[in-house]
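user:
I keep going back and forth on a fold encoding question. Separate attempts, laid side by side, tell us more than any discussion would. Would you put together a sequence-and-structure record for a protein of your own picking? Write it directly below this note and I will take it from there.

assistant:
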Amino acid sequence: MEKTINRRDFIKTTTATTAGVATLATGITLTTFVNANENPVTNEKRWGMLIDTNRLTETDIDGMVSACQNEHGWGSDKLSTGDQKASWIKKLKVKDTATGRISNLALMCQHCEEPPCVDVCPTNASMKREDGIVLVDKHLCIGCRYCMMACPYEARSFVHEELTDQKEHMPRGKGTVESCTMCVHKVDKGEQPACVASVNSDAVIFGDLYDSSSKINQTLKKVQSTQIRADLNLNTAVRYSGI
């Protein structure tokens, strides 16, 4: 999905209200999805991403979207259209009205330290792991979509239709909410998220924000970066430079 917005007018919250009945594919559990790591997840790490909009091209973002779709199986919904279609990662064009400069930007769940989606969830389906990754437990999600309304990034999608050919590492279900998982199943095995691996440059850097020796930590010390909607004090794990 591609969208052009004014640099000063960022994303407004969604207005979905109707509750649905969550149905998860038979035989799929959340055990491997939430904690596939042999080592326990702790708060000694916090996974994050730095996106350099000066280096990220439209082709890069298209590749990120495709990689995410292929990895998790969303985007092939034939019946859903428009705002109803799943969108875990979006391609945006952000225009500086003062200079006319347009930046290409990839927007996904920002994995906030203080996630509004978790605060409003009535069933604790929206949750944050100890390492900062924000997830949705599809077994607990009742489809109320409060989390979608609370998210200032419009980063969550609602599944409107029956699903087939699901991937074992990514359970999806009609009547549930979903969003970027930061490829938790890959991260737990020491791998990069699919979207990051698809970019053949340092335009997107992934790593442990707490590790002073990590590439992302070292880069953030050298370059000016920003959080989208920093005024909300959510302390997002996804940072941007060049905007």
